[in-house]
């Protein structure tokens, strides 16, 4: 950014010089010299640093993650322990049809629960909380009475990469501390008691706290 400032300053000085003095050979030479100096300075900017600045300015990018299917496709096949498998499975059944950003948001809710004293302290624990009591669990797919069959391998491969990035801490925070979510297809009563923090695709995200008119 300092180079940009120098460039702006150089152009301003050159403009002032040309306005305040007649168009002489000396003035023209001074302006040309300033332009050459700036050109050399711009060439010294590190390409990696410049690329990082451009990426960070994008609303669809943060940290190591870019919220796109192309980015996910470029990532290596992920692997991991039971925590990884639990999160990948949850994303498959809860958000495989969601946007990439929406999938990361669902992963973040689960991660926020793991960090909260109100919920179990592991991904598998959070995801399977209440499992065994039909429709009394936290994640419906674990207690709806249907077999958990992964019938779309391509969708599972994608959410697995989301799960790996989330577990590795590579994903930015995008839900403002949400620990709850639901789809736009339902209107649970608890949603009126909490503060909505975000919406991605067909998912609405909430954190504990009273909903206000400004939210």
Distance between the termini: 35 Å
Mean pLDDT across all amino acids: 77
> CATH-wise, what's the superfamily of the largest domain?
Cell wall hydrolase SleB, domain 1
SSE run: HHHEEHHHHHEEE
Determine the structural class based on helices, strands and strand pairing.
mainly alpha
Radius of gyration: 26 Å
The CATH class label of the largest domain is Mainly Alpha
Let me know the number of strands.
5
What characteristic shape results from the CA principal axes? globular
Q: Enumerate how many helices there are, as a single number.
A: 8
Beta-strand percentage?
A: 5-15%
CATH architecture of the largest domain: Orthogonal Bundle
Q: Residue ranges: pLDDT <50 for 5 or more in a row?
A: 5-28, 44-61
Strand order of the largest sheet: 3-5-4
Helix content: 40-55%
Q: Can you summarize the main beta sheet?
A: 3 strands, antiparallel
Total count of domains = 2
Predict the CATH topology of the largest domain. Arc Repressor Mutant, subunit A
Protein name: Cell wall hydrolase
Signal peptide: 1-20
InterPro entries: Cell_wall_hydrolase_SleB, SleB_dom1
GO molecular function: hydrolase activity
List the helices and strands and how they pair.
Elements: H1 2-20, H2 25-43, H3 47-57, E1 61-62, E2 65-66, H4 69-73, H5 82-95, H6 100-115, H7 123-127, H8 153-167, E3 180-183, E4 195-200, E5 203-207
Helix pairs in contact: 1-2, 5-6, 5-8, 6-8
